[in-house]
Design goal:
10 strands; eight-stranded mixed β-sheet; alpha/beta; globular; 331 residues; 10 helices; 2 domains; two-stranded antiparallel ribbon; Rossmann fold
Length: 331
């Protein structure tokens, strides 16, 4: 019979038939509804994870602490990795006009947890955390912003997982710690850090004093080296540093064990490389220009009269360059 299939009941012996077409259509509708319900629930859940405010993500056996702020495509912004809290990165508020910024503390930094095992703070551990956070947030692709050691992380991630990245903003980033890096650091210090406000900072940085300090205290003493105008330090909040994170990352030799320059050609997405012309720790010649030279899709911006944090020292010039680049990326 057309569109019907006759069956016999085993218990009664009676003949009965089932409308296969109607049954199939109903089943399809049910599957479709369940499919839509699943993905709408998953979407709603992912949106909760990206609601404005403070959150924690359980990934790789650690709780990553993160803040969400802004509107637009998601941009992950890790802390530098060696212990500094991510709070200072939240001063990049103009970015939030273009992105939903996700500022997160890397393992053991800030309010994030982390294993008490220095072997668990390698380059790959930080890459796994970044990729797991992307997955946790339900995103196939993200933008990335990183400063200093955070810049190292986002460039490293881009070279390994280019297909999961929309674009990268590398702020005073590092890619290779070598003799060229060290030579430029010493040159900048010797030529530009000679006022009385730098003497105590240089003595602490080069280990010439014997004062025992926490990392918070040490960073406060050496902070003048990071600026061309030391007066601006009075206007910014004190940076917080996790002593354990610093000890563990130092023991794992992160930032020094890998030459990122060899892999940067794998990055095919747009990259904005910004550096202060007076940065002593991630210099123009040894870091920014070499990074730019190894990424064909990159643009280099050198901010004049700025040190390691150009968006704080020269916000007008810094954000003008960023806004122009962001407009070209249609974000």
């Amino acid at each position: 019979m057309s569109n019907f299939f006759a069956l016999n009941s085993i218990t009664t012996g009676r003949g009965w038939s089932v409308n296969v077409t109607g049954y199939t259509n109903a089943l399809r509708k049910l599957v479709c509804c369940l499919f839509m319900l699943f993905f709408s629930t998953a979407y709603a859940f992912s949106q909760q994870k990206l609601a404005t405010g403070e959150h924690f993500a359980d990934v790789n056996g650690v709780k990553l602490h993160y803040y969400v702020s802004g509107k637009g495509p998601v941009c992950l912004a890790p802390s530098p990795g060696w212990g500094a809290h991510v709070d200072y990165m939240r001063s990049l508020t103009p970015f939030e006009k273009h992105f939903t910024m996700v500022y997160y503390d890397t393992r053991k930094s800030g309010l994030s947890s982390g294993p008490d095992d220095p072997t668990k703070y390698t380059d790959q551990d930080f890459m796994n955390d970044m990729d797991s956070l992307r997955t946790y947030l339900g995103l196939s692709k993200v933008w990335l912003t990183g400063h200093s050691g955070g810049g190292y992380q986002v460039l490293n991630y881009g070279s390994l997982y280019n297909d999961h990245v929309n674009g990268i903003i590398a702020l005073d980033a590092m890619a290779r710690y070598d003799s060229l890096h060290h030579a430029e650091m010493m040159k900048v210090i010797n030529e530009t850090k000679n006022g009385p406000e730098f003497e105590k900072a240089k003595a602490a940085f080069f280990g010439k004093d014997t004062v025992k300090r926490t990392m918070d205290e040490f960073l406060e003493v050496i902070l003048p080296l990071y600026f061309t105008n030391t007066q601006i330090i009075r206007t910014i909040p004190k940076l917080k540093v996790s002593d354990k994170a610093y000890a563990y990352t130092r023991a794992s030799n992160i930032f020094k064990s890998k030459n990122l320059l060899d892999d940067l050609h794998n990055i095919k997405v747009p990259v904005l490389v910004i550096v202060g012309d007076g940065d002593f720790i991630c210099g123009v010649e040894s870091e920014a220009k070499r990074i730019h030279a190894h990424i064909p899709t990159s643009r280099l911006v050198i901010v004049k009269n700025a040190g390691h944090l150009p968006w704080i020292e020269q916000p007008k010039e810094f954000y003008k360059a960023f806004e122009q680049w962001a407009k070209e990326q249609h974000i």
